[in-house]
From TrEMBL:
Gene3D superfamilies: Formyl transferase, N-terminal domain. This is Phosphoribosylglycinamide formyltransferase. Pfam families: Formyl_trans_N. Catalyzes the transfer of a formyl group from 10-formyltetrahydrofolate to 5-phospho-ribosyl-glycinamide (GAR), producing 5-phospho-ribosyl-N-formylglycinamide (FGAR) and tetrahydrofolate. The gene is purN. Transmembrane segments: none annotated. The lineage of its organism: Bacteria, Bacteria division WOR-3. Belongs to the GART family.
Length: 203
C-alpha cells in the first residue's frame, strides 16, 4: 500500500472524506500523516480523533507561502514518513521550492472551480458574480503555477438561480469528496500518462 500525506489548513472535510474512503476500502492508500500550517486547524483534530498522526509544522513569517528553510522541514517530514503522494486539501499556501522538486509530479491539489476558470480564493463567489451556469471542482497536479498544473479529474455542478456562495460551495464540496478519492486512486495506480497538459488513463 502506498503512503499518502494530507496537508490541510482548516476545516478538513476533504480529509474526513479521505479517511472515510480509506476505512470503507474505496481509497487504496495508507494515510501516513496529516500536516498543517495552523496549530488550531480542525483537520488536525479530525486526524487525531481518527487515530492518525497529526503534525503542526511552523509555516514561518510569510502569509501565503513558506520560506525555503520552513518548506524544507515539510520536505524532511514527508520523506521521514516515506510519503509517495502529497494531497493538498484546503492547504492555503503556494507550494514552492524545495517541495516542488523533492515531490515532483507527486503533489495533488483540489480546487473548488472548473479550472482554468476562477483560480485563487473565494472562487464560488467569483463564479456567481461572473454569472456562469456551471461551476464545479478540479483535482490537478501541482506545479510552479497557481492552480495551473495538469488536470486529473473534474466534476461540473450547475449553478441555481437562488444559490449563494455557501449553498454553491456545499454542493461543490460533495463532488470534491468523490473525485479526490478517484484521482488519488488513479495516480497511485500509476495507470496514466501525461501528454502535454493532458492526463490520460492507460489502465
Ligand atoms: C475546499 O473547498 C477546497 O477545494 C478548497 O478549500 C476547501 C477546503 O475545505 N481549496 C482551495 O481553495 C485551494 N485553492 P476542507 O478543509 O473542508 O477540505
Amino acid at each position: 500500500m502506498k503512503n499518502i500525506a494530507v496537508l490541510a489548513s482548516g476545516r478538513g472535510s476533504n480529509l474526513e472524506a479521505i479517511i472515510k474512503n480509506i476505512k470503507n476500502g474505496t481509497l487504496h492508500a495508507n494515510l501516513a500523516c496529516v500536516i498543517s500550517d495552523r496549530e488550531d486547524a480542525n483537520a488536525l483534530a479530525i486526524a487525531r480523533d481518527a487515530g492518525y498522526k497529526a503534525l503542526y509544522l511552523d509555516p514561518g513569517p510569510k502569509k501565503t507561502w513558506l520560506l525555503p528553510e520552513y518548506e524544507e522541514k515539510y520536505v524532511t517530514t514527508l520523506q521521514d514518513h516515506k510519503i509517495d503522494l502529497v494531497c493538498l486539501s484546503g492547504f492555503m499556501r503556494i507550494i514552492k521550492q524545495p517541495l516542488l522538486t523533492a515531490f515532483a509530479g507527486r503533489i495533488l491539489n483540489i480546487h473548488p472551480s472548473l479550472l482554468p476558470a476562477f483560480p485563487g480564493l473565494e472562487v464560488q463567489k467569483k463564479a456567481l458574480e461572473y454569472g456562469v451556469k456551471f461551476s464545479g471542482c478540479t483535482v490537478h497536479f501541482v506545479d510552479d503555477t497557481v492552480d495551473g498544473g495538469p488536470i486529473i479529474a473534474q466534476a461540473a455542478v450547475p449553478i441555481l438561480d437562488d444559490d449563494d456562495a455557501d449553498t454553491l460551495a456545499a454542493r461543490i464540496l460533495k463532488e470534491e469528496h468523490r473525485i479526490y478519492t478517484e484521482a488519488i486512486n488513479l495516480v497511485l495506480s500509476g495507470k496514466y500518462k501525461i501528454e502535454g497538459r493532458r492526463v490520460i488513463k492507460t489502465g
